[in-house]
């Protein structure tokens, strides 16, 4: 009996190791024009890339990162573009020290993410977090 309990305990510990963080998965941006897939990378930081676009084509071609300040990147497709970078979990529901890239204007902002169940408060800012804007993203229900 003790052997089975030990085996069960080891199995449960392995399952817990592979458990997803609550922010991992697909999220709609505030306008619901894109789905962002948030994932944990091997460096234990969180990233997010564009996984779906409501309008993936412009002028008969795949939409590109045309506002990127780096002219060499302006022809890269928006699908698959990493827009959230380097977030670290700082509390139960807080993720910080990351950046968010806005392909609409080609700018990158410091960012804090707060997990609120089926919503994320995504706050982009320059300098101080109290000088910024919060967008509410919603979890994609599949």
Apparent shape: globular
Secondary structure: helix percent: 10-25%
Count of strand segments: 10
Order of helices and strands: HEEEEEEEEEE
Give Rg in angstroms: 18 Å
Could you characterize what this model shows?
With 142 residues, this protein is mainly beta. It has one domain (23-139): Lipocalin (Beta Barrel). Helices cover 11% and strands 46% of the residues. The protein is built from one helix and ten strands. A hairpin with a 2-residue loop joins strand 8 (107-116) and strand 9 (119-125). The protein is globular, with a radius of gyration of 18 Å. 15% of the residues are buried.
Salient structural properties:
single chain, eight-stranded antiparallel β-barrel, Lipocalin, 142 residues, globular, two-stranded antiparallel sheet, 10 strands, mainly beta
Task: Furnish the topology, listing elements before pairings.
Elements: H1 2-17, E1 25-28, E2 34-40, E3 46-53, E4 57-58, E5 61-62, E6 82-89, E7 94-102, E8 107-116, E9 119-125, E10 132-139
Antiparallel strand pairs: 1-2, 1-10, 2-3, 3-6, 4-5, 6-7, 7-8, 8-9, 9-10
Brief digest:
With 142 residues, the protein is mostly beta strands. It has 1 helix and 10 strands; from the N terminus they run H-E-E-E-E-E-E-E-E-E-E.
